[in-house]
Design brief:
The complex is a heterodimer.
Chain A: H1 12-29, H2 36-40, H3 55-58, E1 60-67, H4 69-90, E2 95-100, E3 103-108, H5 114-124, E4 127-129, E5 134-139, E6 141-145, E7 150-155, H6 157-181, E8 188-192, E9 196-202, H7 207-215, E10 220-224, E11 231-232, E12 238-239, E13 242-246, E14 257-261, E15 266-267, E16 271-278, E17 285-291, H8 293-305, E18 311-315, E19 318-321, E20 333-336, H9 342-354, E21 361-369, H10 371-425, H11 431-460, H12 465-497, H13 500-538
Helix pairs in contact in A: 1-10, 6-9, 10-11, 10-13, 11-12, 11-13, 12-13
Chain B: H1 22-47, H2 53-56, E1 58-65, H3 72-80, E2 87-92, E3 94-102, H4 111-123, E4 127-135, H5 137-165, H6 168-191, H7 198-228, H8 234-266, H9 272-291, H10 293-300
Antiparallel strand pairs in B: 1-3, 1-4, 2-3
Helix pairs in contact in B: 1-6, 3-4, 5-6, 5-7, 6-7, 6-9, 6-10, 7-8, 7-9, 8-9
Chain lengths: 546, 305
């Protein structure tokens, strides 16, 4: 062993490691070569994850929504103006309060009220909480004294940013609930950039109904529950003004219905805010909510008549929860308790807040692929991929003989590694992704071409076989790394620019660059080292079949 | 291991001994390269780049006739008086498939969707909807910027890398080679009236990668030989280096081209333009790594220490 050169010497642990990586890759790539039905009968310890297909191969709809954040800010300012005026009027401070472009302006009738007003207004400013923990020292409001009669109040930038984030996550929650109701498999709904939401739904072709479903305003309502017959297990019961509604999450997996008065007590658009908090006595997670004036009045009347009875919170025709009224709620704000986990309470608060989407969502991009085109693309992609690969393999073996076979073995492991990585991290394969894979295979072959051509040159210059192989590898490696790194930089930029299919292409290309350096350089080198060892046992002066 | 038969490889493209004078050849080829760039620039400015919906906004729908061949004239009649502005109708891939492109509709955000629905109902029940794409004005302008930035950034990244790894003369040669490749590829693209969209940008960037890959291999060898043959004339060293790596360059181009050709022939018409662009790029990238890089290095001269 020791007399072998640097490039061809492998300690035993390295051999084990290299083949180990190849075997593990093959193991994780394996599910892709079997039918899904066969996979179900496999023992649990075997991997079952297959490559997921992008929308262009699978068929489906891709919708990009943009949230009108200006509208959101305008709505918030309208509320702020109301709150400011209310607060100052309650303190008997005479003023004129109006909205200005980025805030609220207060003109005091009497300059003497200034200190009192400032103090009261500053009390309105709360630390920004992300509903579970309080973060930092950022406050919600900025209160500025302009002169001895004028005060400006505006939302702080941090709070506005926080609001957009909250509204987006609320909207995502709402969209997810609605798309789930559509009954399709695995929708992908994610935030993109500042104010965008990407909705990808496989298997959907008719986007008109999907768009209607997503775009419609959620109906959040508060209802009174039938005085005697509350819970039932049948639907479609109608008794006078009462109608049965299903519970959003079934109790003990049994479909449960409540009989509710059809006309709501309070509507969602009368709800001003809802947040997750903790009960001061029991420290249980709760949801606190506030109604606007109109809603507060109606709710006060209703709760004072129905103490110790449940009322129901209905969202899009399903009952979110049916808490018991403990005491009359007079101030327009109250709390919902129940056996919530903090997370569930937070989600419910978001749902309540987002019940009516906080701002308009508009579709700014829509792409659909019908199932027939998707199926065609899969079959043509497979055909093209296998023809292309076979041709490459043929050329490699033709040009480099036995060493070509070694390169092909490397190429096969390369394919296994890429498939294993992509199936494990769950990155979707797209049609351009298949093109990227073919190109990667080309680049992997290129690495071997570089090495083998170098070996041929060294042989032509009269070097001995083993030395030629050694020099071939050591000289070619820096060139390979140089050329792969430049391609990688292009791929990374493509991924960053990326939209859907292009990202798939860039991803396939980048994964392939790393794996092909490993297989084309390391794996093939190991195979050749083992081959040289075996040959030398037969004959001291081996000749390279290249 | 003992059972592996010793197969001798076929000696493909071995030019090592019969040295080709690439520098002399490039004297003839530089004018034609310049002419190709000029023609491409003229084509681009007169014909204009045919931006797809990704960059221009608007919408497309691909339909396939359920029975018989598609009747373009009839479709054109059906959709021409819907009042939706400019509508382009073309065969797509096979005689049964048709691609209809509608210009950006202004109005509320649903107007593009309505326009597509009008078209689909106008062409009638004999056609099946295969694919739709709707891109609004905000997204298209963002994608246009992103595309430009991406190409620009990759060129910049590549320049930096080459400059860092080699002398500045190589970086200059690489930049000229890349610009040469991109302009001529876009020229061919424009003259074939292909649609320029996001996947075209991806193809262009891959060509960049491939071309620079070739250029790096050639530069690597030139640098190595400059150290090895200190007394030889620069042009001789360049010639010798290109001859030495020529077999590699050609074999790699061949295998990559064959892989891409399979994709072009069997990969379906959705990515046909994409693969065509890449095939062209592989050829032009191979050409430029020899005939653009070499003369520039010879003119600029490389410091030899």
């Amino acid at each position: 062993m020791k007399e072998l050169t640097v490039m061809l010497y492998f300690p035993r642990w390295k051999i084990v490691l290299i083949f180990g990586v190849c075997l593990i890759a093959t193991f994780f790539a394996m599910p892709n070569f079997f039918h899904t039905k066969t996979l179900k009968s496999w023992p649990a310890w075997l991997p079952k994850k297959q490559l997921s297909l992008g929308l262009d191969l699978q068929g489906g709809a891709h919708l990009l929504y943009s949230m009108n954040t200006n509208e959101l800010k305008t709505n918030m300012l309208r509320n702020l103006r109301g709150d400011v005026r209310q607060r100052l009027t309650d303190a008997k401070i005479g003023q004129i309060t109006g909205r200005i472009s980025n805030g609220v302006k207060v003109l005091l009738s009497n300059p003497d009220d200034m200190p009192n007003s400032l103090e009261r207004l500053r009390q309105m400013s709360q630390p920004i909480s992300n509903s579970i923990i309080h973060v930092g020292i950022e406050k919600t409001l900025r209160v500025t004294k302009i002169n001895d009669r004028v005060i400006h109040i505006s939302y702080s930038d941090a709070y506005l940013k926080h609001l957009v984030t909250e509204s987006i996550s609320g909207a995502i929650e709402t969209i997810r609930r609605r798309v789930d109701a559509f009954g399709t498999s695995e929708p992908n709904i994610v935030r993109q950039g500042e104010d965008r939401i990407l909705v990808q739904v496989p298997g959907i072709e008719n986007t008109t109904s999907l768009r209607e479903l997503i775009g419609k305003t959620a109906k959040l309502t508060f209802h009174s529950v039938h005085p005697t017959q509350t819970i039932s297990s049948t639907s479609q019961q109608i008794q006078g003004e009462y109608k049965s509604y299903p519970l959003a999450e079934n109790l003990n997996e049994v479909e449960t219905f409540y009989l509710l008065k059809e006309v709501p007590v309070v509507r969602g658009d009368q709800l001003k805010d809802a947040r997750q908090g903790y009960d001061q006595q029991t420290n249980e997670p709760i949801i606190t909510f506030t109604f606007n004036q109109e809603g507060a009045r109606a709710f006060a009347k209703f709760t004072s008549r129905n103490v110790n009875r449940p009322f129901a919170i209905l969202l899009d025709g399903k009952i979110l929860s049916a808490p018991i009224i403990r005491e009359p709620i007079m101030g327009g704000s109250g709390q919902i308790s129940g056996s919530f986990t903090p997370k569930a309470a937070n989600e419910l608060a978001i749902q309540l807040r987002s019940g009516s989407l906080p701002a308009d969502l508009t579709v700014i991009e829509e792409r659909t692929v019908g199932p027939s085109l998707g199926a065609d693309s899969i079959s043509s992609g497979l055909l093209a991929g296998s023809v292309g690969l076979t041709a490459m393999i043929f050329i490699t073996v033709w040009v480099y003989g036995t060493f070509g076979v070694f390169a092909v073995v490397g190429l096969i492991f390369n394919g296994m590694l890429i498939i294993a990585i992509m199936s494990t991290i769950g990155f979707a394969l797209t049609l351009p992704g298949i093109a990227g894979l073919i190109l990667t295979m080309g680049m992997a072959v290129d690495a071997n071409v570089l090495i083998y051509e170098r070996i041929r040159e060294e042989l032509a210059s009269g070097k001995l076989a083993i030395l030629a192989v050694d020099t071939g590898f050591s000289r070619a490696i820096s060139t390979i790394v140089d050329s792969q790194l430049t391609t990688l930089s292009a791929a990374i930029i493509m991924f960053w620019l990326g939209s859907g299919p292009i990202r798939g292409f860039a991803m396939a290309l980048s994964i392939g660059i790393f794996t092909s350096i490993f297989t084309a350089v390391t794996v093939v080198r190991l195979i050749i080292a083992l081959w040289v060892q075996a040959e030398r046992r037969k004959n001291r002066n081996i000749a390279l079949p290249i | 291991m003992l059972f592996i038969p010793n197969m001798k490889g076929h000696r493909l493209f071995q030019f090592r001994n019969n040295s080709i004078d690439f520098i002399a050849l490039s004297r003839f080829l530089i004018p034609s390269s310049l002419a190709a760039i000029l023609t491409s620039l003229l084509l681009i400015s007169f014909l204009g780049v045919n931006f797809g919906v990704d960059f221009n906004g608007g919408s497309i729908v691909e339909i396939r006739s359920k029975e018989g061949l598609a009747d373009i004239a009839k479709i054109r009649d059906a959709v021409s008086n819907l009042g939706l502005g400019d509508i382009q109708i073309q065969m797509f891939g096979s005689e049964k498939d048709v691609l209809i492109r509608v210009e950006q509709q202004y109005g509320d955000d649903n107007s593009q969707k309505y326009a597509l629905e009008k078209i689909i109902s106008a062409v009638g029940k004999n056609y099946e909807k295969r694919r739709t794409e709707i891109v609004g004005p905000v997204v298209s302008s963002e994608l246009r910027n992103a595309g430009l930035i991406a190409v620009f950034c990759s060129i910049l990244a590549i320049i930096c890398y080459v400059w860092f790894r080699f002398e500045w003369q190589f970086a200059v040669g690489t930049v000229f080679a890349l610009i040469h490749d991109i302009i001529i590829t876009i020229g061919v693209f424009v003259s074939l009236q292909f649609e320029f969209d996001l996947s075209t940008v991806a193809a262009l960037m891959t060509i960049l990668g491939y071309s620079v890959n070739d250029t790096v291999v050639v530069s690597d060898r030139i640098r190595e030989n400059l150290k090895k043959y200190k007394k030889l004339k620069l042009s001789t060293v360049i010639n010798r280096s290109i001859n030495e790596v020529l077999s590699r360059t050609l074999i790699t181009s061949l295998t990559t081209l064959i892989g891409l050709l399979a994709l072009y022939l069997f990969g379906g018409h959705v990515i046909q333009d994409f693969t065509f662009t890449m095939m062209f790029g592989v050829i032009i990238g191979t050409y430029s790594s020899i005939f653009v890089l070499a003369p520039i290095l010879e003119i600029l001269g490389v410091k030899r220490g």
